[in-house]
Amino acid sequence: MSALAWVIGFVYLAAAVAFVVGLHLMRTPSSARRGNLISAAGMVVAIVATVVVAVLEGTGTWLGWGALGLGLIAGGVFGAVRARTVKMTDVPQLVSLFNAVGGGAAAAIAIADLLRRGGGTVTPTSSVPIVLDVLIGSITLSGSLIAAGKLQGTIPGRPLLFPGARFVNGLVVLVALAASVLVVLWPSTIAFVIVLLVAALAFGVLMVLPIGGADAPVVVSLLNAFTGLAVAMAGFVIGNQAMIIAGALVGAAGTILTLQMAAAMNRSVLSILIGGFGTGGSTG
Amino acid sequence: MTPTLFTDIAIFVLSLLVGFEVISKIPSTLHTPMMSGANAIHGVVVAGAIAIAAFADSPIGYLLTGIAGALAAANVVGGYVVTDRMLQMFRKPVSTTAPAPSDTEQGEGR
Fold first, then answer.
1. What angle do CA A261, A262, A264 make, to 5 degrees?
2. Does residue A75 lie within any of the structural domains?
3. Is there a domain that residue A36 lies in?
4. Which of A59, A203, A252, B43 lies at a C-alpha separation of 20 to 30 Å from B96?
């Protein structure tokens, strides 16, 4: 391990501790805000460390750094402005939107990494996390956008079902699974990646459309946990342990939160997810 | 299986267990802020966007870098700012001086 790798390793570890402590403090109202700030401080440290590594070890061009800079500024300004100006009643759909873009970013990272390697040198140890990342990230991208639309009212809040929805759903799942296997076996064939991407996006839409608007917050929380897992997979793809730790942390904490939110509404997560399927107006 | 991969998988599994344990019973008023706070933490995906920028060498690579950067920055900056705004409501007296604390966070994603 080089000196730089040691320093970065410990910085990432400190960031991970800040995320855990921050999340822990957010359980109680009196310390919740401090928890969020500690978590944010950990994030700043992790990002600065990543920039240092990328600059020192990267082979990037000015075009690459320019594209990154433009993207970060555009996204950062959009996020900050929307977060500061949103009406408090519209916060849930904004959180859902921020969750959607996180999943999209994770999927984009996996695809970029696959294209850069050109397929020839991709072994299953990297193609498996790439596939899982694209799959989960795309589902949470399109699913969270639909959930945000339902919360906002731009998409009807009632469970949306069309004849044969269950059949179409099953078909999409099969296509996504088949494409996943094909990408693992032949990572250099870009067509399979595109099929996987489209099928996963379609599944995200089909998964959330049948869910009632009142249940949407629980679904956003579930998709939030999904994004955590997608980010952890992206961490495996590019070998970043801060992303693996933070992603797994959010994946697990998000799952617990989802169960508690459903319990608070006297609902089970399973009945929410299958609520609209076939059973008509079941509120079970 | 390389030692690095094994280490990464071990870290992943242990982090999952920590995640299950770190939040126990949450009062329902904190459900949405908690969700938003966790949402901000997976904004660490911005580190991945930076990492792919360091090796981007083709037009499609630049495009994906820009997209990943924009999406990740919106996630991390927006996530923390909106969580902080929500949590300010739990402290009544200072809620009128809203801008001061969140100002320090705005630059983190850039």
1. 65
2. no
3. no
4. B43
Tokens of residue A114, six digits: 């696959």
Range of the domain at A268: 90-274
Residue B48 lies in a domain: yes
- Within a domain: A248: yes
* Complex ipTM value: 0.91
Mean pLDDT of A186-193: 89
To the nearest whole Å, the CA of A167 is away from the closest chain B CA by 32
On whether residue B3 sits in a domain, the answer given is no
What is the SS3 assignment for A258?
A: helix
Total structural domains within chain B? 1
Query: Which of B36, B42, B57, B82 has the most A C-beta neighbours within 10 Å, making it the best mutation to test the interface with A?
Result: B42
- Total domains present in chain A: 1
Owning domain of residue B63? 30-109
Q: Which residues contact A234 (CB under 8 A, 6 or more apart)?
A: A106, A109, A110, A129, A133, A137, A240, A243, A247, B45, B48
- Cβ-count burial A119-139 (b if 16+ within 10 Å, e if not): eeebeeebbbbbbbbbbbbbb
Q: Pick from B13, B14, B15 the residue to mutate for testing the A interface (most A CBs within 10 Å).
A: B15
pLDDT(A58) > 80: no
B49: in domain = yes
Average pLDDT value for residue range A72-101: 95
Structure tokens at A56: 């020192």
Does B44 reside within a domain? Answer: yes
Q: Which of A19, A112, A224 sits opposite B39 (nearest CB)?
A: A224
Per-chain mean pLDDT for chain A? 90
d(CA A76, CA B105): 11
Q: What is the mean predicted confidence (pLDDT) over A66-84?
A: 96
Backbone angles phi, psi at A71, to 5 degrees: -60, -45
Residue A169 contacts residue A211 (beta carbons within 8 Å): no
